[in-house]
């Protein structure tokens, strides 16, 4: 059985899919206590990710790549994911 934490699993999936040079993941679930999503067991996360895969892509496509990377965790383990997705040239 996988004993890693939810943030560790998110980081692992994003790293495998997008090979980011920067990956900052913050669990903001405590800020949303009492919220309907929190009651269902999903967590609220804020993500800053920098990946060469984002070069030349519009924001919506960058977000799609991120969501595709963690799709199996969405809705049951991740209720909300606030994303800042940058290409290395934008730093």
From TrEMBL:
It comes from the Bacteria. Pfam families: BolA (PF01722). PANTHER family: PTHR46230, SUFE-LIKE PROTEIN 1, CHLOROPLASTIC_MITOCHONDRIAL. Belongs to the BolA/IbaG family. This is BolA family transcriptional regulator.
């Amino acid at each position: 059985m996988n004993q890693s934490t939810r943030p560790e699993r998110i980081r692992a999936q994003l790293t495998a899919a997008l090979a980011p040079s920067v990956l900052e993941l913050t669990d903001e679930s405590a800020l949303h206590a009492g919220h309907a999503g929190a009651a269902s067991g999903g967590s609220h996360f804020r993500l800053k990710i920098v990946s060469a895969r984002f070069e030349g892509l519009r924001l919506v496509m960058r977000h799609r790549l991120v969501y595709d990377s963690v799709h199996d965790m969405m809705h049951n383990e991740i209720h909300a994911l606030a994303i800042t997705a940058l290409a290395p040239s934008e730093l």
